Amino acid sequence: MWRENWVAFIAAWQGPLSLDFADLEVHATDELAFVRSCVRLVGTMYGEQVDLWTRVTNCFRRIDGEWLMIHDHVSVPIDFATGLALLNLSPAKPLG
Fold first, then answer.
1. Burial of 16 (0-12, 13-18, 19+ CB in 10 A)
2. Taking Cα atoms as reference points, which of 73, 85, 82, 89 lies closest to residue 37?
3. How far apart are CA 50 and CA 64, in angstroms?
4. Strands (DSSP E) along 4-47, which ranges?
5. How far apart are CA 30 and CA 7, in angstroms?
6. Of 19, 63, 67, whose CA–CA distance to 40 is shortest?
7. Potential cystine with 24: which of 9, 37, 46, 54 (Cβ 3.0-4.6 Å)?
8. Residue 94 — very low, low, confident or very high, per pLDDT cuts 50/70/90?
9. Contact of 14 with 47, CB cutoff 8 Å
10. CA 90 to chain centroid
11. Three-class DSSP category at 89
């Protein structure tokens, strides 16, 4: 299911998709690693120009000598008072 979601997400973009990374953090041991970052997506999705930042957290585990992703989370901040996504935020322009 995870793979199907990502395939559908990538297929929704028309033309090039630009990714920029900020605030990258990596925490790792010999067997487990967590990666947090902000990722900017710029391109055309469903015919609309998109330029937004997302928050990404991934967890990797070394299984039989190979690093495999065991957790993937992508989100945008929300305004809890309204329930609306805050799509105009960026690492350089945080809430507040």
1. exposed
2. 73
3. 39
4. 13-28, 32-45
5. 30
6. 19
7. 37
8. low
9. yes
10. 13
11. coil
Q: Within a 10 A sphere around the Cβ of 58, how many other Cβ atoms?
A: 16
Residues 93/40, Cβ–Cβ less than 8 Å: no
**Amino acid letter, residue 73:** H
Query: What distance in Å separates the CA atoms of residue 55 and residue 89, rounded to the nearest whole number?
Result: 11
pLDDT surpasses 70 at 51: yes
* Cβ–Cβ < 8 Å for 39, 20: yes
Where does residue 36 rank: exposed (0-12), middle (13-18), buried (19+ CB within 10 A)? middle
What are 79's strand-pairing partners? 84
Give me the residue label for tokens 């039989």: 64
Token pair, residue 75, equals 């989100």
Backbone torsions φ then ψ of 61, nearest 5 degrees = -130, 135
**What pTM did the predictor assign?**
0.81
Dihedral Cα 49, 82, 55, 69, nearest 10 deg: -110
